[in-house]
Hints:
- The protein has about 290 residues and is of the alpha/beta class.
- It has three domains: about 5-90, Orthogonal Bundle (Arc Repressor Mutant, subunit A), CATH 1.10.10.10; about 95-150 and about 260-285, Rossmann fold (3-Layer(aba) Sandwich), CATH 3.40.50; about 155-260, D-Maltodextrin-Binding Protein, domain 2, CATH 3.40.190.290.
- About 45% of the residues lie in helices and about 20% in strands.
- The strands form two sheets. Strands 3, 4, 5, 6, 7, 8, 9, 10 and 11 form a nine-stranded mixed sheet that branches. A two-stranded antiparallel ribbon has the order 1-2.
- The two termini are about 50 Å apart.
- It holds the Pfam family HTH_1.
Amino acid sequence: MVVDLIGGCRAFVSVSEAGSFTAGAALARIPQPVASRRIAALERHFGERLFDRTTRRARLTPFGRDMLPSAKRLVTLADAMEHDAQRAKLRPTRLAIPEICPIRELAELDAAARALDVFLEFRQAPPRERAELVRTQEVRAALTAVPGEEGTWKVELGLAGTGGSRTGSLHLETLRVGRSGRALRRVWIQPEDDVPHLRDRLFRVRDSVGLRPAQVAVADSLTGAAAAVFGSADLLLCSTAQATELGLAWRPIGELRLVRGYEVTAGLGEDAQRLRARLWPDIARCLGAEETT
């Protein structure tokens, strides 16, 4: 027979402090018969009586007096463990996220997580830093950049500018500078897309269609890239969500399809699974990804 040592000791301590089984049960917040059964089970387990039941009051036997300090320590330790468990549930999950996530969508993700008793603490970082933050245990999990076909979340990229058509594809070859001497137009890659599986593919197409090396360049920041686009005929490599936020006209790239892929990387597999399974659509909105699996 398995004995509930903690429950039995809690009843034992409460009855000893109250001086009666009825008052002790009330102190332990359990019915009096339950307190009596738990103490009886404890006595059977130890093979000795804890209380002298020949009087109206619950008087400790010599054995009971000897066992009471240990019982109190066990109850105190159990209470401390319960407290620690509650604190552990509330411990924030530090999550490294892309710098492109809008504040409103992050707030909605945070609210959705709290409804599931998951408490998030965000740390924005460039793509190359996010996986490193997990490795050094500075965060518990990160939304890391992966090739589109490998991503749990996928974000299609295109080219956006201040003018021109919003329909049909935009071919990079149309940016080629001819003998007419027209102004040089650039495509700006923001830091979030400065990863080999996106940047290098775009560079290869740039070279294959005869653009100058400077016509496809990596910007120091999204703000800097957007500023360059607002002040010229330049184009920004971005998602449709970003283009809408910036008020730019977005079109897919004619020569290739570029897709940001995102996956959860975590020190513990259960952290990654919990974020992936329980907060999929909310993370998708933060990333500007399609909300279909």
